[in-house]
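Quick one:
INPUT:
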């Protein structure tokens, strides 16, 4: 089973990112958190892949060479639009580019996430894939059906999503343990 950060770890992690006040890092990490895109897909995103009106991002040639659309919350659209505008003014093509007009590297993104985890005082690093696992596990705990998650995740089949159901069971066990303390017998 993959390591999935807890909600408390995600809150602490994001609070650390927010306190860093690096707007590009905030947008990048929120993009990972909200969309569940893989890190290689993230660094390949172009500005014209983002549809701010529909609140979705087109992932071109994702894992297995497949294209898909992933949603993001409407509450994130304004932040994303401001980031995109700043990137366009710099002459960027990609959603996340360095000052040298090169797309971020997957290693660079991983290193950034690790730095924030260390700054947050977490005992383990946070990887882009762990953020992906967190999103899909969280959606399962919220009752979202596999049939709705599967197209966004980029998994070949719903069977691939079983891992998120198993991970959500651990959360269900915690809720059960807490609730059973109030059981009348």
């Amino acid at each position: 089973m993959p390591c999935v950060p807890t909600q408390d770890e995600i809150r602490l992690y994001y609070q650390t990112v927010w306190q860093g006040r690096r707007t590009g890092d905030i947008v990048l990490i929120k993009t990972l958190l909200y969309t569940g895109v893989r890190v290689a897909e993230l660094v390949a995103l172009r500005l014209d892949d983002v549809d701010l009106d529909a609140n979705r991002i087109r992932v071109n040639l994702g894992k297995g060479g497949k294209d898909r659309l992933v949603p993001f919350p409407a509450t994130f659209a304004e932040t994303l639009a401001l980031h995109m505008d700043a990137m366009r003014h710099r002459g960027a093509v990609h959603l996340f580019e360095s000052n040298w007009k090169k797309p971020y590297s997957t290693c660079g993104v991983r290193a950034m996430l690790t730095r924030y985890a260390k700054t947050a005082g977490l005992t383990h690093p946070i990887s882009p894939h762990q953020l992906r696992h967190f999103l899909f596990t969280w959606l399962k705990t919220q009752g979202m059906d596999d049939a709705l998650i599967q197209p966004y995740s980029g998994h070949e089949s719903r069977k691939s999503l079983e891992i998120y159901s198993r991970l959500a069971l651990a959360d269900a066990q915690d809720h059960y343990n807490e609730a059973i303390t109030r059981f009348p017998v």
